[in-house]
Amino acid sequence: MSVFPTVCPFCGAGCRLGLRVEDGRVTGLEYLSDHPVALGALCSKGNAALEVLNHPDRLRQPLVREGNGWKEVGWEQALTMLASRLDDIRQNHGGPALAFLASAKATNEENYLFQKLARLLGSPHVDHCARLCHSPSVVGLSRAFGSGAMTNPIPDLAHSRCILILGSNFAENHPVVSRWVCEAKDRGGVVFVADPRRTPTAALADRYLPIRPGTDVALLNGMMRAILDEGLADWEFIRHRTVGFEEWRASLQGSTVEEHAAIAGVSPADIVAVARAYARAEASAIIYCMGVTQHTVGTDNVEACANLALLCGQIGRPGAGILPLRGQNNVQGACDMGALAEFLPGYAPVADPQARRRIAQAWGREDLPEGPGLSVVEIMHAAHEGRIRGMVVMGENPAVSDPATTETVAALGRLEFLVVQDLFLTETARLAHLVLPAACWAEKSGSYTNTERRVQWSEKVVDPPGEARPDLWIIGEMGRRLGVWGSVPTAGETLAEVARVVPAYGGITAERLRNTPAGLFWPCPNSSHPGTPILYRERFNTADGRGRFCPVTYQMPGEQPGAEFPLWMTTGRVTVHYNSGAMTRRAPSLSRYAPEVWVALHPQDTERLGLADGDEVEVRTPRGQVTARVQISQEVQPGQVFLPFHFPGVNTLTRPDLDRDARIPAYKVAACALEKGG
Amino acid sequence: MRGLVVDDTLCFGCRACSSACTPSVIRLREADGSRLVWFPGTCQEDCTRCQEVCPKEAISFEETDREREGRELRFALRHCDRCGRPFAPEKVLADLAPRVRQALATEETSWLTLCLSCRREEAVSGLL
Amino acid sequence: MGREVLLRPERCILCLACEVACAREHGSQERIWVIHHNGHGAPVSCRQCQTAPCVAVCPPQALEQRNGSVVLVAEKCTGCELCLWACPFGAMVLDTERGQAYKCDLCSSRQEEGLEPACVLTCPSQALVLNCVADFAARRRDVAGRAWAAGWTRRGR
Predict the structure, then answer these.
(1) Quick one: which of A275, A561, C2, C49 has the most CB atoms within 10 Å?
(2) Beta carbons of C14 and A202 less than 8 Å apart
(3) What pLDDT was estimated at residue C156?
(4) Looking at the domain covering A2-53, what would its CATH class be?
(5) Which has the closest alpha carbon to A291: A190, A202, A197?
């Protein structure tokens, strides 16, 4: 019996997951201690991966909707139907009447081919769930640094002397990060956590700041005000490596630490303490996640983080950097591959004709559809209005994940043709006309790019069940039958094309990755380049090589508690579940801990409302209502409630209001009311 | 017939016999803060597992020419000092306590009157 | 000296990986439980006591000290439950279906393949370590001392 290394299919940490195989079946799981980030560790989800892999619900055959049920069909019939339906729409209404949702879970090769197909079919509307989580990082950090990715590897955190954790609950969602933060603490480092919710991550903090929802800019500007007041800025760094400092400093003129603190809901002393520690430490890192990005001011929040790093020269060195933790096993890769409405592969802007034509030529065309295309939430609006008539959804579950999902479900219902490729008959797949059974991570070969920009290869270990096929084959067949290309490429061939089209992947080939189990960090521009673990050591990725200060001022969240909806509502994740729950709600060893949705309330609120632990309540926002059981919790602050979004229905409550630049929905802040009863 | 005899001065309400009894002739249940163990008056199985495993040698067999009524022995369960839930028979705890104290060479065994969950919580709160 | 599963409680992030891994390795019967306490927490499992009350009270002597750990010989276990009540940590449990007690066995079947216990290998924050007490304590002293010194140096307090 042998153990085969794969890349874990869950979060963006990209841990190695060893699979024991006997007679063509995966029979066990093993810990592979030589992985540089995880050192063999696996979180609760990774440990339950086999329950997903071998689940009886796995789709095994293409399904065509028939009345209220499904009819199993063969691939030939399924693909013929798919090609003809998509082609009909394209011929009668044009390429832009089609939309494509790529997958943060599929391989780089699959995402690359998928967005290529979309654009060669004449549609600019290709996007995926990165829109809903880290699009502000892509946009905001690109503006500040020229590139939207995490700057330092996770193990590098051990070299940080000060770690500022904003709106990240990595203890639950990227558990292996904890080891490296603890290493930093063991070496005398200090850790701060700012989050409205006192999460398990806050338990690692030397000081925890319970900021008010939506006030990250106030906290960060308050810190920067204090740093300026005390002369703690890194003037050498500012002079030699940045631009825009004066204009940015003017935007903070006249404000005081006290004013910022009052908005953030923390004491000025706390802000000053964190600011001093961050500025003075030999190396400081900022870790941030959804608490920073999922707001109508998400891009502002990200830029404020970048400003802080530039102000103190805490970037471009070991232990000093900005770490946006990407959530899914390949969301970074899907973005790198251009599965985004405003970017082509390698973040070539769709709106830039020169960049667009360069890619077009690589694909044997003159030009590609102009853009930017519509983003995820906008695609659903357009579908509702009939402007989008056909949609291909690969490994995504918008019927559970989109904000204001009642509208999403209605929109998907209006499509003339919806095809979904997935492992399970998800809530989204149930709305489709055609469902295609896909292979999961262990059943296909390809590369994945984790949150650190580390590209790793995962080799196929077993065959998929029944007639399920890798997404690469499905997309390849789609393209072939729609006349876009002649044959289905292999993963290796696709990655070779990626290397020609995306400079940062220039030196990355399947062969090289197979021989480099620890993976390669992009940028890796050529075959002799060792990869780039730490970004911006010498220069930023901007045109002039300098980091850019972006003035941002605090703006109130667009929805606040009032008379009718008196409580703050936030949504988030818990450790045993993963995103829409399509995988984890099917894993008994995980779902046993959290089988159904709940709403967490502070004891002061439950007392005031006369609620007991376990009571059924209706949680209501302007967009909908959900039944949930009360969980009395010390994690939330009085006046705030929390719901895990892994269950269908929770996102019917959240807001579809979008960030102006990154078009991310404001999931983290809403106003709600709570009533007893079910 | 094989009569089953339980000496109720020796039996202290553990689970050995009911755990060992594969045909579930001896049955154990818990209700209303008590553990109730049902012993049949006669047993026609051909094993003596219950007798073998009993820590108190409280079970014996004797020939009898008539049916005998079974009997249910009742043992009060100790309520956990911390959460109040009933957990172990008082008689079992009373039997264990001196032996545990001797083994650990300590009189400090307040945890004996805590249920398993509360013992785990005490262990952790002591650590943190 | 025997290596046992030891805990650095400040590293426990309540992620439940140890419980899930243990359950998988032992037919859904985990022998480690993550206990929450005031926003922090830690896992509890058999402490492999050098003087074990469970060993002292077991009527069929199914529990024995072996190489620095406490081994439960399942074939001898009569399911009497006395060991459950004798354990100060609540680390012993009873499988009522099989009529036998069970506890952390340091993943004995993995040991046969030269592999470390699943909970130790899986712990994402390395809160659980496999070590002997003396070495573990020495390392804790080392880290604590250096962290304090580094803190003093940097913060100048």
Answers:
(1) A275
(2) no
(3) 41
(4) mainly beta
(5) A197
CATH code reported for the domain at A63-132+329-504: 3.40.50.740
| pLDDT at residue C1, as a whole number | 63
Is the CB of A178 inside 8 Å of chain C's CB atoms?
yes
Q: What is the pLDDT of residues A132-172, one digit of tens each?
A: 999 999 999 999 999 999 999 999 999 999 999 999 999 99
Q: Which of C143, C11, B125 is nearest to A201 (CA)?
A: C11
Who among A198, A200, A590 is closest to C20 (CB)? A590
Beta-strand runs (E) in A54-181: 63-66, 69-72, 98-101, 126-127, 162-166
> Does A1 touch chain C if contact means CB atoms closer than 8 Å?
no
Chains that touch C (3 or more CB pairs under 8 A): A, B
pLDDT at C157: 34
Q: With CB atoms and an 8 Å threshold, state whether B14 touches C41.
A: no
What share of chain C has pLDDT > 90, as a percent?
A: 85
Asked if C150 and A187 come within 8 Å (Cβ–Cβ), the reply is yes
Residues B100 and B81 in one domain: yes
pLDDT < 70 positions in chain A: 1, 678
Examine the domain organization and report whether B93 and B114 are in the same domain: yes
A164: which strand partners? Answer: A192, A286
CATH architecture of C48-92: 2-Layer Sandwich (3.30)
Q: Using CB atoms, pick whichever of B55, B115, B128 lies closest to residue C59.
A: B55
CB contact under 8 A, C124 and A38: yes
Q: Any idea what the Cα angle at residue C81 is, between residues C85 and B26, rounded to 5°?
A: 140
The domain segmentation of chain C, as residue ranges, is 48-92
How far is Cα of residue A237 from the mean position of the Cα atoms in its chain?
31
